[in-house]
Write a structure and sequence with these properties.
By secondary structure, the chain is an alpha+beta fold. The chain has helices at 5-17, 65-77, 79-83, 99-103, 115-123, 130-145, 154-161, 165-176, 184-195, 201-212, 227-240, 246-253, 289-302; strands spanning 39-44, 49-53, 59-60, 198-199, 257-259, 264-269, 273-278. A 5-stranded antiparallel sheet has the order 2-1-7-6-5. Strands 3-4 form a two-stranded antiparallel sheet. Strand 1 and strand 2 (49-53) form a beta hairpin. Bound molecules: glutamic acid. Residues 62-63, 95-96, 115, 160, 167, 195, 260-261, 286 line the site of glutamic acid (GLU).
């Protein structure tokens, strides 16, 4: 796949303009990432894929897995199973906030992309055993990305597992509220595994394209997701995909997207392309600072604003 000169220029400008930041360190194994890496990829509707920089470097998807898990659970369990327990509203709080679970009168997570909502969705992953459940999600992500044999970064998974006091607190509180299906520790273990799934920006751009095509695979590959489910995932990406930075990102790019603390961002531009950026240096909200800048420039360059 050729590296693309137009994208190279965008990346150079983004490297120069990005406002610093550093890799996540609350999961110790993520702190080792090279903060200078930056990659960009676009999967166009005609099936062509263009990329530049570190677009083939694998990293852990972290919270981007929440978009895949939501899509998969919507397909397998239906809308009511999710939205009887999780809302559809932005919280305006950081991704790992616990406070509103107790203070809000509805006593349920605001949306599926903050950790509390994502843990509920993970508890709904279909399958008879933990192994089946993670394999089911991996298989679905393989179909979305077009990449076989997806792997899990065991060091990052273990590092998160061993430093997850806050996520454990959230999960046990959800259990007290009657919102977690099944065993709490099993849900947490599945969540650590789904966050440590490894993909690269090119894979995420391909998955973004499936969302952009309302659930269809490119090149006449058939339907992978119900259109309604693709719409739900994209809508929540546009309002909640970058945590408490979602509004600003939307103003700057006009593109529904989902970020993760591994440094990835996946976006979908309806009927045109899937896009992705990777840069492990994060801003104070946990979003890739270089990635946001690269996507802002990309959106301007190609007129990708949906909003
Ligand atoms: N595994 C991370 C956590 O739960 C994901 C957070 C993120 O990517 O924003 O803390």
């Amino acid at each position: 796949m050729p590296q693309d000169e137009r994208l190279e220029r965008i990346l150079e400008a983004a490297q120069g303009a990005r406002s610093g930041g550093k890799p996540a360190s609350y999961i110790p194994a993520l702190a080792a990432a090279d903060p200078g890496l930056l990659g960009l990829a676009v999967a166009w509707k005609d099936g062509s894929l263009r990329s530049a920089g570190a677009a083939r470097v694998d990293f852990t998807v972290q919270s981007i897995s929440k978009a895949f898990a939501l899509a998969w659970v919507l397909e397998e369990r239906g809308e009511d199973a999710v939205f009887s327990k999780v809302g559809k509203e932005p919280s305006g709080d950081p991704f790992n906030s616990i406070i509103r679970l107790e203070t809000d009168r509805r006593r349920r997570p605001f949306n599926p992309f903050i950790n509390a909502g994502a843990l509920v969705v993970t508890s709904l992953l279909p399958g008879a055993t933990p192994g089946n459940r993670i394999e089911g999600l991996l298989g679905f992500m393989s179909r979305m990305t077009g990449r076989d044999g997806l792997g899990i970064d065991a060091a990052v998974r273990d590092s998160e597992r061993d430093s997850a006091a806050r996520n454990r607190a959230i999960a046990w509180f959800l259990s007290e509220l009657g919102l977690l299906e099944g065993d709490v520790d099993e849900t947490l273990d599945l969540y650590f595994r789904q966050c440590a799934i490894m993909l690269c920006a090119e894979d995420l751009a391909r998955a973004g394209l499936v969302l952009a095509l309302d659930g269809m695979l490119p090149d006449g590959g058939g339907r992978l997701l119900e259109a309604r489910n693709a719409h739900i995932v994209k809508s929540l990406m546009s309002t909640c995909g970058l945590y408490d930075g979602s509004g600003e990102f939307s103003v700057e790019t006009g593109i529904p997207a989902k970020s993760g603390v591994g440094g990835g961002i996946m976006g979908a531009v309806r009927d045109r392309c899937g896009i992705a950026a990777f840069g492990p240096a994060l801003d104070e909200r946990g979003n890739s600072s270089g990635g946001i800048e690269a996507l802002r420039l990309l959106s301007d360059e190609y007129g990708l604003r949906a909003l």
